[in-house]
Amino acid sequence: MCPMPSAESTQASAPTPDPVRPTRQDEVAATGSELIGGPLGRHALVGTSWWTPVRMIALVAIGMFALGLVQKAPCYNGAWFFGASSQYTHACYSDIPHLYQGRGFADGLVPYFDKLPGDMQYLEYPVLTGVFMEFASWLTPGGGSIQHQEQWYWMVNAGMLMVCAAVIAVCVTRTHARRPWDGLLVALAPAFALTATINWDLLAVALTAAAMLMWSRSRPLAFGVLLGLATAAKLYPFLILGPLLVLCWRSGRWREYGIALGGAAGSWLVVNVPVMLFAFEGWSKFYTFSQERGVDFGSFWLIMAQNSDNPLSTETVNTLAMLLMLLCSCGVAALALTAPRRPRFAQLAFLIVAAFILTNKVYSPQYVLWLVPLAVLARPRWRDFLIWQACEVAYFLGIWMYLAYTTSGDAHKGLPTDGYHWAIGAHLLGTLFLCVMVVRDILMPERDPVRRAGADDPSGGVLDGAQDVFVFGPAARPARHAAPVDGTPVEWATGRPDPGSP
């Protein structure tokens, strides 16, 4: 008599699902692959050598990042220092070299503790970003002219941000393990390369991408710690905890959510409390500056203000923006609790961050970095992604041409106000378009490219394949089977193949 195999040996011997090949599911990916020889064949041996998808995508991301550095060459060679408008006409502006001296790093001032000359008084960035900036200043050679130091400071920051870019590409690639080639969307995103070294946003984006990877591996504590660190670098990552709360409510995963929330709060406090205790005024500058800042570039609020004889006050805009964000949050929560099948975590994470960007009173061009990895995880379709990226590139060029127009005096080189409003409209419409596509996938899961490949929620971790315990609306009274995604009947609540099906 042969012994019965154990559960462990059965699981170990189970065949690993084949990776999803976008060139077989995505028309744009298939067409684009012709540039390098066409789609992969059935017998292609990918991942059996050193050239695994993760390594290839990381190298592509570094290559695109390097092209972004080349695009900044006109500014590096003088436009940052000798001409206010030329850095805009060449679309190569960056905050990094300007803030080296403007925020006291050239003089050895300690962020949050030492006062700055002028009206700013203290560094207006969250603590972990301030640590990043300070660390880069330590690595910057101090000899030579201030121009030479600023060039070095930008190069040092660019090297550190390149590491962040590679981390983002790797994390997105590994989050959807069966869809590694989706990481190419991040690596090849044109707006990603163009805006990567404008500011320090890539630090928070890298920590958020790493947090998403940890959640997909069912490690809620690591997710929470990384998300708390990301929030200590930029404010937006904490928004992701909202959709996660609703998804854990629908699936009854309260313990995992509590662990994640505790980890996020703990790591945020570890970074912030020491500065709060000993330099509260400097620590609070980021929050007071965000509150007091007026309507600024890139927002629909700016279009309203520039076309009004009596523009709204900053306080009124703050209140209205908060109300709009609250309405969007309620809409995302209602969508999560009433959708016919529980939305994927990445879908709701994208929607909530996109809502914040659309309703905010300012949209700096580098804010697109916040959305790129979430967009790839939420809707990995080349056509839709490239449409959105085209809109963001149009805005990237539009804001610099508008600033060139406003700083060139009587020459009026660049884009006038009306033209800049069209650029803002392109950004808003592109982001709204991608939001609509994600919402459609949630309401019609059979059209979701991830679920069409037979997955439930690969970025969901403990949510992946979990039973629903709390649902509103028609989804609370489903038919026996959900709509088939790939031809196989599935359980409505879990998305797993129905054991009773042939």
Give a concise summary.
This protein is an all-alpha fold. It has one domain. It has 23 helices and 2 strands.
Q: Layout of SSEs?
A:
Layout: H1 7-13, H2 27-32, H3 53-71, H4 73-82, H5 86-89, H6 95-102, H7 127-138, H8 146-175, H9 183-187, H10 190-195, H11 201-216, H12 220-233, H13 241-251, H14 254-278, H15 280-283, H16 285-292, H17 300-306, H18 314-338, H19 345-359, H20 368-378, H21 382-407, H22 417-443, H23 449-452, E1 481-482, E2 490-491
Note the total helix count: 23
- Radius of gyration, in angstroms, nearest whole number: 24 Å
The structure class reads mainly alpha
> In whole angstroms, how far apart are the ends?
30 Å
The coarse silhouette is globular
Topology order in helix (H) and strand (E) letters: HHHHHHHHHHHHHHHHHHHHHHHEE
Largest sheet: 2 strands, antiparallel
Total separate domains: 1
Task: Round the mean pLDDT to the nearest integer and report it.
Answer: 87
Helical content class: 55-70%
What order do the strands of the largest sheet run in, or round the barrel if closed?
1-2
List keywords for this structure.
single chain, 502 residues, mainly alpha, two-stranded antiparallel sheet, 2 strands, disordered N terminus, disordered C terminus
